[in-house]
Structures are given as structure tokens and as C-alpha cells.
Amino acid sequence: MRVPSLMVVLFALTYNSCKKEPEPIAQETTEFKIDYEKFVLDNGLEVILHEDHSDPIVAVATMMHVGSNREKPGKTGFAHFFEHMSFNDSENVPVGANRKMIPEWGGSRNGGTWSDGTVYYEVVPKDAFEKILWIDSDRFGYMINTVTKEALEREKQVVKNEKRQRVDNAAYGYTDEIIRKYLYPEGHPYSWTVIGALPDLQAATIEDVKEFYNQYYGASNASLVIAGDIDIEETKGLVEKWFGEIPSGPEVEKLQVDPVVLEETKSLYFEDNFAKLPEMRMVFPTVEEYHQDVYALEILGKLLSGSKNAPLYNAIVQEQKLAPNVGTYQSSNELAGEFIFRVRANAGTDLDSVKIAIEKGLTMFETNGVNEKDLKRIKAELETDLYQGVSTVLNKAFQLVQDNEFKGDPGFIVESAKLTEAVTAADVMRVYNQYIKDKNYVMTSVVPKGQLDLAVTNAMPATVWQERVRYNVANEEVGQGAEAVYEKTPTKHDRSEPAFGELPLFKSPEIWRGTLENGLTLYGIENHEVPLVQFDITIPGGQLLDPIGKEGVSSLLSDLMLEGTATKTPAELEEALGLLGATVRMYSDKEDFHITGSCLTKNFEGTMSLVKEIILEPRWDFKEFERLKLALKTNLKGREANPNTIGFNAFNRLVYGENHRFGTPSSGTLESIKEITIKDLKSYYNNLSPKEAKFHIAGAITKEQTEHIVSVLNTWNGYKIAVPHYNLPIANRKGNLYFIDVPDAKQSVIYIGKLVVSAKDENADKLEFANEILGGGSSGRLFQTLRIEKGYTYGAYSGFSKSNEVAPFAVRTSVRANATLKSLEIIKEMLENYQSSFTNDEVKLTKNKILKSNTRAFESLRAQLSILKNISKYNKPDTYIEDTQDALTKMTLNDYRTTINNYLNEEEMIYVVVGDKKLLLHELNKLEKPIIELDIHGNVIDVPAFY
């Protein structure tokens, strides 16, 4: 494995005549940078290449310098809509191939639009590198002639579903629209949201699409980055071939920086149909991206609320207990910026009290100023974030393309790091006084419906356009339509599909093992691409060891153990970790308790000393326990606002039953946490034993170094803990449809499934393979039918989670409310016919997709840590991924059909639908399934009946 150029020199080898000592970890590093080569094609396209041979994959990112800030009032949301249209068809690529073929090559693809730009990106195995240049360049330069009215109308429905899912059907979804409307003057490029208004979208025409393309999608208005396992000189020729004939396009006039000056403070309130908690935001106009004050403003945000010592945290969370947390942060765009205060308060909290607490916190900040140690801590954390942010080839591609297109310097990250490091306490106070103190702002009070008394006094009502959902709307039914008729654009180079290169197959990394004296088992992967380590301690038990009736104990314990140690207050522990640039967190899931972390390799020893202290010397701070319990209550109440969470929790309760641990969320319920005491947490603490625990580590560190440093945990002792087993329920619910009412929901959340297999079952991998065609990403039948063909949803998938316990398979999607029945009928028929419709073509396609996707699936340190956790938890061999690949190649059509018949029988599945009862319930009777109504907690409120 070649070490990329951004890697720093970490280790020095030392020996003596008697024995080999662990290699010391060097403290000095070379200057951080990302090597690249930049050139410009004759058509004006700026190209940046970065060579990294650490994995056989290539990332491609194309940045178009056009976002929603180029739109006109009455045609909002168009940049984002055009991104969607771009993924449809192009002249030299088969119809539908852009969304379907890339996953079949083992790649991933997507796009994103924001106020200032649009990015398209792919990551593929290196054998598909030229294919991705072919398909990406064709999307860029040769798609406009293929646009049809049918494609236009179909994509409108997809984008409208995205808006319903992310905005209309989500708590606080309208807040951004309110802020933009009142912060920016009418007509300002940021005065509307990126996703825009549905009436504007519905009115879009083919002429609008062509006008937008011709104006903004020229090569001279873009940057292209290719990063990964490439040869620079060879790639230059391929880029010239595939992108060189794309028209330059007209010159796009540069937008001028347009900061906002508010003449007065504006206070607005809004009653939110989904919100269960009151939320306040205060937004101050600041400066644009790349302005010299951005770096001080970013640090100001972390100083105000980002630690236990922060003044706003103290005033709001610690002293007055108004909210679980508070956020302050700088958000910059190309033309202007915003500094944001955000508090989602406890249920029933008057937002006037939150506003007063914010003012008190700011007064504390003005009085005390900037603590130099806090400044040092934040800079250490940002150094770690810097390396985390470029730890994959796709992340490096994003960084290079963003800085090239908007700053004109692909390598600006080096200068950015220096500017951050140079920020002084005086700089922070200066920007606070210049942009925040005594300045006007926009404030929003978003409160649950019917709780206007919680809004800030004298706030004015904010209005937003809200869709009225009706059944049987003719203009929302779309279809594939005929292919476009056009004359192909003549090109000098042949634009036929290129052949695959040599197929790279995943090769298991070398895995080392070790054992401490106390029985803690070590698993590691050495990876020197960036000077980081990520680690995980997995202790068996998790939710399974929660006391009956007090589900949530283990989750609360995982929070409390990070609130200080016997010798450190919560603030002191946080500071100690921050000065190392380290992140340590704990969480409890269904079957395990986890202690995880990451840091620069040079700080691993210091980090592990603190981990030892956290494990062995808990503080048992009753005040923090009470705060955390209140925060958990608030968070659980907030989840009642999320239809997806409601559906997920109800589905698990139904498939596992009320008596099985997994029928309850691992963080508990409002009922189960009521009687939890700190004594319960102390009792659970005795389950944290190293005897069956596993320590996993991936990163720039050797086995010898790890063993030497982690040996600090040898003083951690305990006994082997017996983890209880719970019986699975008798499957007596199959065939039922369970309905949960969320009034005025614009979408319906759907879960369909059943319990299938344990991850240790010999058929688990077979089921995963068999699901790939049905719901494995954007090329799956669910996605292709419900989104691409019908326009009913933004996404539709299926799969099953992995655990030692038998886990459920589920189809999951959110669909347009008035397409709920049709979506259910399609899914039902698809499941019923899946076995018979699975052919040898699908056998070949499944093999190809999974084998190739494995080459990119384990690039990151997190993914490599996942390999180690799978090996240790499920007792898999080190080569299990290669073994799985071998088993995949041997699967026959009969194996697939047998697996589908055994595990994916539609008649054995339950249906869960979360949506608007008054619109849907009578209509769902046509599905001819017993309908049982549940409340949002999964309790039956009606007996089985046909409506």
C-alpha cells in the first residue's frame, strides 16, 4: 500500500540489543497538504487530479457554479430541480442508465444543491473509471436534448416528495423558509429556500429547463476533480477525450457579495403541526465564505456553547435547565453569512425564559472574555477534524473542487488551517462586538400546535405556503413516456460505452490480535493513510441487561459516565479530551455497550489514559444524572414528532412483541425512564467487565504500540457476565396492517416486514444477496418503480439489520399521501412475485454489484473498524469478506429462489402505515388486510376490522 503524500512522518524505529521496544510516536508533523495537479481544457473546464493508490477506487466530483442564488422569484427551487433532471437520460447512454448502471458497476453516485452551487459525484472501483468519465461527461454535456415532458413531470413528483419528506412532514421543517424570508430583503438571492416553492416547481416547463442548462451548464462554469487510484498523465488524456468537446457556454456574470444589514430586530412565531417541543433561533447577519472573519466567528460559536464551561451552556442547560443543549455556529455562503443561536427547549418551556438566559450567557461572555485554554482546546479539536475531513478520496475530492470553484485555489485547505491557527482571543472578541453585540437579528419561536403561549412575547405571526393534500389528483399521476426524438450532437471522439478495466477484488486487510492480562481481547488494522486512529471497546450486554420495566438504564449510564470522573468535573474531563483533539463517546445498543473514540495518533496515549479514568473512576454526579434524565425525557418527547421514528418503533414492537427487549427502543420510553434512579445505573455499571469485552482499533499505529498503550487498562477487572435470552413471540400478527394517525401528514411512512435470521445464521449472507435486486439502493426494483417510474417517493429500500438475535427484514419508504394505497399495492405485488421473477440475469447482476462494491466499502477507518467488530462479535475468520465473496460466486438461481421463499414470503409480513387517518384509512380497506389502529406509541386503540 502506497502512503499518500499528505501522510506525515509518525514513527521512528528504535532497537536495543536485548529486545524490541514499542515504537515511540513522534510528536512533530510535516505541513499538512493535499498534492494535486491542475490544468484547464480549451473549453474552460478547470480540472484537478489527485493521485492516491491506497485503495483501488476513484472518486469524481463535478462542481457547477450555480445554485438557488441564480434563480428568479417565481421560479424558485430550479437549480435543485435541474440537478434531479440531470440524472435522467443523455444522448450516448442507455435510457435510465445513469441511476441504475453505476450501482451495478459497484459504485455510488449522488448530487447536491445548495444556495451557491451544485455538485455531482461518484465513487467507483478503478475498473469502471473510464466508464464513469463516459457517463459523467455525457450527463454534463449531452443531456438536454433527451428531456421529455414525461420526464419533466415525473421528476417534479420526486422533488415534491423530497420537500414533503424533509420540510412539510418534519418538525421545524418550515423554519429555514421563515428565516430567509425575514432576514433577506425581497429579491435577494438567499431570500428563498434551496428546495423552493411547490407552485413554482409545478409550473416549470421544458423551455425553462433548456434555458437554465444553456445559461449555466457550460464547461467554463465548472470544476472537475478526479481523486484516487489513477495515473496522472493517462487521466489527462481521458479527461480531454470525454470532457474536451463539451461547449464552454456563455460567460456567467459573477455575483457580488451582498451582506445583509437589518434595520430592526424581527421576532416571528409559527405553530408547527409536528413539533412537540418549542424551539428558538436567533440569526445575525455576518460575512461570506472565505472572508477573514469567518475563522474567528467559527471559533466564537464553539466558545459560546460548545463545552461545559461555555457561558450559554451554563446559563441555559446547567443553571436554569431549560433545554438539553444549545448550539451556536457560523454559516457562510458565497454572498453572505449568518451566525445562528439554536435552542430546542424542554417540553412546555416558555421561550421568553430562553431568550433571557441567552442574554445572561452573553453578558457572562462579555465579562469573562476568551479563556486561552479554551482557545487552545478548540484549535486541537479542529486539527483532528482537518484530517477526519480528508480521510477518504471522496472527501478529498470535495475539498479540492469546492476550494477551486469558489476560491480559485484547490489547495486552500492549507491556508485555511493556518488562518484558523492564527485566530487570537482579541480576534474573537472583535468579531463578537462587530457582528453580535447589540446588533439586530431575526428570531423565530416555533411551538407545538396549540401552544402559542410558549412563543416569545410580542412575536409576530410568520406565514408559509402549505400544500393541501387531496386524493385522486390527476396531474400527479406520471409515467415513463416515450423516449425523446432528437438528432445526436456530432462529436470528434467516439462516445460509445468504454470497456471495463482490470477487475480489482477486495482483499482482506492484515488483522492482528492480542490479549491483555485482564482478558480484554485486542483486534487491529494498521493503516497509515492519515495520522489518525479510531477505536471501539465493545462490552456484551447493552439493552439486554436493562432491568425489566426500566428500559433505558444502559443508555443513561453511557451518558453519565462521560460527565466527569472521580478527580475531574464534567468540564475538566471535556477540556482534557479537547486539548488532545480527541473524541470519546459511549452508547448502548441492543446487544452491546460501546466506548468509542478517535484522535491523532500522537495523542492516543493521552486519550487512553483518560479512557481508563472514565471506565474505572466514574463520578456518579447526581446533579448531572438529573440533568441527563431530563434531557432524555425531552429527546424522547421530541421523537414523537417524527413519523419515521414512530413507524420504526411500532414495527419493532410488533415483530418482537411487548415482552422482548427489542420491542422497546434502546434509549427507553417516557414511561420506562420515569422510575430510573442513579442506583440503577450503579448496579448496571457492574456489568462492564473486560472478560468478554473486545478492543478494536484501526489507524496509523502498530500492534506493539497499541498493546503498550492499551495495557493501561490492565487494572480494569470484573467477572464474566451472563447475558439473558428472551424468547421470540409466536408469529400471530402476519397479514395485518397497522395504522397510526398523524393528522395532516403530507406523506405516509411505510414499513413492511417480518423477523428473518440472526447474523450468525448460515443463511444470513444469502438473504442479504437475495435482497439486493429488490431493495439494495437506487438500482433496486423498489426505488426504480416507486421513484423513477411512478414518482411516488423520494426513496424506497429494503434490507435487514444484523444482530445475534433474529433480526427483522423490512421494506421502508415514505410516499406521497394520496399515493399510499397504490404504493402498497405495488410493494405487495413485488414481494409476491419476487421469487418467480428472479432469473439468472439477476444472479449475475447481484454477483457483479456486490463484488465490485466491496472494493470501496472498506476504505475509511470507520469501515475497517466495522470489519474488526464483525469478526469479534460473530466469530468470523479474518478473511470472512473474501469467504463471503466466494460463497456469492457459487450461489445458483435455485439458491436465490429458495432463500426468497424461506424468508421473504409476503403473506407472513406485517404492514405498518403512519399517515393522515381522515385521508387514508377508508381507502386502505381496498388492500383487503385486517386494519388495526395504533397510537403513536404502538398501543392498540381498535380491534381488527375491515373499513
TrEMBL record:
<dbReference type="Pfam" id="PF00675">
    <property type="entry name" value="Peptidase_M16"/>
</dbReference>
<feature type="domain" description="Peptidase M16 C-terminal">
    <location>
        <begin position="676"/>
        <end position="849"/>
    </location>
</feature>
<feature type="domain" description="Peptidase M16 C-terminal">
    <location>
        <begin position="204"/>
        <end position="382"/>
    </location>
</feature>
<feature type="domain" description="Peptidase M16 N-terminal">
    <location>
        <begin position="529"/>
        <end position="651"/>
    </location>
</feature>
<feature type="domain" description="Peptidase M16 N-terminal">
    <location>
        <begin position="47"/>
        <end position="168"/>
    </location>
</feature>
<comment type="similarity">
    <text>Belongs to the peptidase M16 family.</text>
</comment>
<dbReference type="InterPro" id="IPR050626">
    <property type="entry name" value="Peptidase_M16"/>
</dbReference>
<keyword id="KW-0862">Zinc</keyword>
<keyword id="KW-0482">Metalloprotease</keyword>
<dbReference type="InterPro" id="IPR011765">
    <property type="entry name" value="Pept_M16_N"/>
</dbReference>
<dbReference type="Pfam" id="PF05193">
    <property type="entry name" value="Peptidase_M16_C"/>
</dbReference>
<protein>
    <submittedName>
        <fullName>M16 family metallopeptidase</fullName>
    </submittedName>
</protein>
<keyword id="KW-0645">Protease</keyword>
<dbReference type="InterPro" id="IPR011249">
    <property type="entry name" value="Metalloenz_LuxS/M16"/>
</dbReference>
<dbReference type="InterPro" id="IPR007863">
    <property type="entry name" value="Peptidase_M16_C"/>
</dbReference>
<keyword id="KW-0378">Hydrolase</keyword>
